[in-house]
Specification:
- The chain is α+β, with helices and mostly antiparallel strands.
- It has a single domain, classed as YaeB-like fold (2-Layer Sandwich), CATH 3.30.2310.
- It is 44% helix and 28% strand.
- The protein contains six helices and five strands, in the order βαααββββααα.
- It has a five-stranded mixed beta sheet with strand order 1-5-4-3-2.
- The longest helix has 12 residues, at 105-116.
- It is globular.
- The two termini are 19 Å apart.
- 22% of the residues are buried.
Amino acid sequence: MFQIIFNEISASEISQLDTLEQLRLLNQFKVAPDDLDKPDGERFGRIERDGKTLYRYRSQEYRIYFEITGDAVIVHRVLHKGTFQDFLFRSKLPLNEDEELGRSKHFWKLIEAGEKARRV
């Protein structure tokens, strides 16, 4: 198992959820190396761009975007699924969610903002 570290942005995003939803989401979000070796596309996904690898954890209504640094999971964003479903609907491209996000400049700007945020 990895240590999970939130930055200011992802901590703020998760704190906007009600307490029971936060607990449910955090209880489900367990990451082991085996989960990332071959992501199943459902619960875990891999997003790549310009040699950078980011992972996605999918819960019922939320997506957690993170990277692995040593023994830590650095959480960059915690977003409601509607955030990107709307984007995918508007783009009307026949790709899966992870492939489309890997190509989206808007998505990578969200991630970069999370990377630059102070860790809490």
